[in-house]
Amino acid sequence: MKIGVPAEIFPGEARVALTPDSAQHLKKLGHEAFVQSGAGLKAGISDAAYADAGVTVLPDARALFEAVDIVAKVRPPVEAEVDMLRAGQTLISFFWPAQNEALMERAKSRGATVIAMDMVPRISRAQKMDALSSMANIAGYRAVIEAGNNFGRFFTGQVTAAGKIPPAKVLVVGAGVAGLAAIGTSVSLGAITYAFDVRPEVAEQIESMGAEFVFLDFEDQTQDGAATGGYAAPSSPEFREKQLAKFRELAPEMDIVITTALIPGRDAPKLWLKDMVAAMKPGSVVVDLAAEKGGNCDLTVMDEKVVSENGVTVIGYTDFPSRMAAQASALYATNIRHMMTDLTPEKDGVVVHDMEDDVIRGATVVHQGEITFPPPPPKVK
Ligand code: NAD
């Protein structure tokens, strides 16, 4: 099959869904790769680098959509991109079908197939295609780097001829994929790192990474809000009060707070409130990774950096993976080629879109002009 990657058109988006390395893997599956000229530039990949890897470079998006059987990209398509799809063609990208019903209808009317990378079921077998996790990992890392860039002090403590420097104290709220990446980065930079999550099962992992898990004095140390299936549920009012009281106690001590708390399908819980920001030292930094879902911090402004009256910087950027475009593209392109591996069982360039396969079924939101979202619950755990 012919697989093509257009340039991203979302303002500021620097990622690209194909790398020279992923193109080589696609070739081994029997596929032929195409790219729109300039698509990789912001991720540091020139047309020449693609050409060297055997990728055919096409001048514009229209030529690319016309030439290929499968279009792979990062951001959900805009209407004009959906309108370039034709019957029998497949689009693979982030799609957010629940929020993009009109786009789904449009793809259906084109007779196309859409595989949504954000709908890949979070089961072990599909981890290699889990683009949400690969991007959240980058976001967690970058959140710490961004915090450091705005902090004005060292992470690690030092004893120098010019004076003794205490280590920074970092609190990570929410220890999912992004939170664990933030914890690992913060510890490796030498900060004293604390982490909190409503799911007590992550305590051991946090401690093994060299951070301290913040327990609450609540029903024999059991955290609330840990629901079935490994995901968090909203906390009870009593638990929330305990949590907020703990955060109030920690706020004056913390130099950097990274918030990543998320409950699937809901707005982000407000956990770092105005008074906590007001209690922090001037020069401290809050990075709110949940900004897109309304933010965990009261002061967060989506996609902006604001400074509070008492001199605390609050960062609400939602494009951390794009700010590390080379790394993010490498991981995303790998997620895509793993999806292609599953779609090409015989490695002979023939795509078998097996709707009996849990992962492929889960991620397929439009199939040959029929809407197939939402999928049935996966059979395999
Ligand atoms: P995840 O579901 O793996 O983790 C969320 C964590 O928050 C879970 O561990 C959950 O138990 C915890 N949590 C829920 N309620 C809590 C509470 N009241 N107190 C403490 N912890 C609580 O999600 P993820 O993949 O790690 O993503 C984390 C956040 O990062 C999401 O909001 C995601 O949208 C965001 N994200 C942002 C960017 C960016 O550029 N800003 C990029 C990727 C992901």
UniProtKB/TrEMBL annotation:
<keyword id="KW-1003">Cell membrane</keyword>
<dbReference type="GO" id="GO:0008750">
    <property type="term" value="F:proton-translocating NAD(P)+ transhydrogenase activity"/>
</dbReference>
<keyword id="KW-0520">NAD</keyword>
<keyword id="KW-0997">Cell inner membrane</keyword>
<feature type="domain" description="Alanine dehydrogenase/pyridine nucleotide transhydrogenase NAD(H)-binding">
    <location>
        <begin position="148"/>
        <end position="316"/>
    </location>
</feature>
<keyword id="KW-0812">Transmembrane</keyword>
<keyword id="KW-1278">Translocase</keyword>
<keyword id="KW-0547">Nucleotide-binding</keyword>
<dbReference type="GO" id="GO:0005886">
    <property type="term" value="C:plasma membrane"/>
</dbReference>
<dbReference type="GO" id="GO:0006740">
    <property type="term" value="P:NADPH regeneration"/>
</dbReference>
<keyword id="KW-0472">Membrane</keyword>
<comment type="similarity">
    <text>Belongs to the AlaDH/PNT family.</text>
</comment>
<dbReference type="GO" id="GO:0050661">
    <property type="term" value="F:NADP binding"/>
</dbReference>
<keyword id="KW-1133">Transmembrane helix</keyword>
<comment type="function">
    <text>The transhydrogenation between NADH and NADP is coupled to respiration and ATP hydrolysis and functions as a proton pump across the membrane.</text>
</comment>
<protein>
    <recommendedName>
        <fullName>NAD(P) transhydrogenase subunit alpha</fullName>
        <ecNumber>7.1.1.1</ecNumber>
    </recommendedName>
</protein>
<feature type="domain" description="Alanine dehydrogenase/pyridine nucleotide transhydrogenase N-terminal">
    <location>
        <begin position="4"/>
        <end position="139"/>
    </location>
</feature>
<keyword id="KW-0521">NADP</keyword>
<dbReference type="GO" id="GO:0016491">
    <property type="term" value="F:oxidoreductase activity"/>
</dbReference>
